[in-house]
Amino acid sequence: MNPMLKYRGGKSKEIVHFINNMPKEYMRYIEPFLGGGALYFYLQPKKSIINDINYKLYSFYKEMQQKYPEARIQLDKL
User: What is the pLDDT of residues 31-66, one digit of tens each?
Assistant: First the structure.
C-alpha cells in the first residue's frame, strides 16, 4: 500500500535499500516518528504502535482510522 501523504524526509525510495536487513518476523511494529508512513504502509503490519510529534499529522491518521468511510466519500467527490 502506498503512503497516504507525501512527507518531507519520506522513505519510499529508500525502502528497497534496507528492507532485506529488517527482521522477517516480529511481534509488533513500532514507529515513533511516522511522518508519511512509507515503511508502515509498505509492511502493513498486523500489530503496530505508531506515533508522531506533529499533532496535526497524528490527528489526520487518527481521523482516517476512525472515520475512513466518510473521508473516502469526500475524497471521491474531489
Answer: 999 999 999 999 999 999 999 999 999 999 899 899
> What distance, in Å, lies between the first and last C-alpha atoms of the chain?
21
Residue type, 42: Y
Taking 3-state DSSP, the helix, strand and coil percentages for the chain, each rounded to the nearest 5, stand at: 45, 10, 45
Residue 8 reports pLDDT greater than 90:
no
Count how many Cα atoms sit within 13 Å of the Cα of residue 77 in the half-sphere of its side chain. Answer: 6
Alpha helices in 15-78 (DSSP H): 15-18, 38-43, 55-77
Q: What is the pTM of this model?
A: 0.79
